[in-house]
What we know:
It is a single chain. The chain is α+β, with helices and mostly antiparallel strands. It has twelve helices and 14 strands. Strands 1, 2, 3, 4, 5 and 10 form a six-stranded mixed beta sheet that branches. The chain starts with 11 loop residues before the first strand and ends with a strand.
Amino acid sequence: MTRDAEIPYGAYWSSPFARWQGSLSHLHSLKFAAHVGARELARRNISLADVDHGILGLTVPQQQSFYGLPWVTGMMGADDVAGPTISQACATGARTLAAACHEVRGGLSDSTLIMATDRTSNGPHVYYPAPAGPGGTGAHEDVVMDNFNHDPHACNAMIDTAENVAAKYQITTEEQNDVVLRRYSQYLDALDNDHAFQKRYMTLPFVVPDSRFRKSTGTLDGDEGVVEVSAEGLAKLKPVKDGGSITFGGQTHPADGTVGLMVTTADGARRQASDPGIQIRIRGFGQSRTEKGFMPQAPVEAAQRALNDADLGIGDIDAVKSHNPFAVNDIVFSRETGFDLENMNNFGCSLIWGHPQGPTGLRCIIELIEELALRGGGRGLFQGCAAGDSAMAVVIEVGSR
């Protein structure tokens, strides 16, 4: 059985993203996903009774996250909905979408709920017992910090991969600063008219619950911790590593947040969409892995594979959205594909609004959908790198039904 899979227009949402150790740092990420997801589905008049499958995207373990998706749907009141928990580092969002499409296209599900959530704040400290070790002493790690700083296969830190690519393509700090200024300007467009663009998918002001989800601790008017950018300020920043080109201004920041999205059949999309006349089709997926230590260049091949899967070329794409933990990501992508560097990432990107890992790619895809809807339709490409020098890409088409 093969059939198409669609995203119902408007059947998606995102919390604001908050810089780590900020206003969301006290919240258990699975409980937060369930809290936000139940509220947002109700706002859209989508019944949990219509959901027959779920997928959880998570990269930072939380207490009892062993129970994964069934715990999340149980907290939401959908005790009969099961499904997997997927972790693929920064590609988790795109991978959950691919998995949902496979379920719907294969006839295993009529309506799949994706919940992606992560809290990089207060990351767990893990101890691994080793009875055969000296004195029985085991190994340990800080899950967030240690993995930012060391790839066990390539034996480098995340920032080293950006420096390697910057050196290979001879990308200067000044070029990176220009990209950061452009991306910040594009993000400000999303804040115009009292966050009009973001309110197309985000409930603002956002009520922040306490850790027991019984009362409010305050509100967020939008993303928290986004740093104002200026040419003068960027020029004052020195590279993080001696002899390098990457400054703190040229890279994203860890964050906390949650994102949800529905994937259904065409009939389900008509019922669940806020505007049934808008059709959102997922045309293609691509995955790649590049040479060790060169993560920011990996999306180029992933994007080409997604385009091939959709039987399209880069010239057929109207909008590009990227998970760009470093400014060099966008520079390399533009040089290799020819897509206009200035016109990528309209209305924002993870370089500016932060990176809670699991939810990041899904928020990019949601913003891509809304950008295409504002254009009256078109084709969009999401692409982004991930740990292990890998990447994923997705081709989306928005049109009239």
